Amino acid sequence: MSKQETAARRARAAVPKAKKVKRPARPRGEPVDDLESYIAERTERNPDFPELMEAAAERKRLLKALANARQAAGMSQTEVASLMETSTSAVARLEKGEANPTIATIQKFAAALGKKVEWDLS
After folding, report:
1. Per CATH, the architecture of 35-112 is what?
2. The whole model's pTM is what?
3. pLDDT, tens digit, 9 for 90 and up, residues 31-57
4. For the chain, which has fewer Cβ within 10 Å, the N-terminal or C-terminal residue?
């Protein structure tokens, strides 16, 4: 065993293992998991939080549909980026939902694919 491997093994052995935290039993009607707790907490602070989450989910679905349309058209992210006059990494971030794009950016993305986004106010 090399000196580096020995040193790495000693370092790992010196790190204490995390202790398991036992959660108290939850009362009836309380959220089941951390996500539900988070949503409940945020909704308590901002009653519009569920609607904001739904709007974010809609944006993500639209971007996923654009990514699927790009793939169906046989286009690369680089080709789309060139047509949008942006970087390939920007297109990748859009497709992954890692960006909060403007309406203009979404329209550029759709136009690069020969598509049009139709907006509906309800």
Report:
1. Orthogonal Bundle (1.10)
2. 0.64
3. 467 888 888 899 999 999 999 999 889
4. C
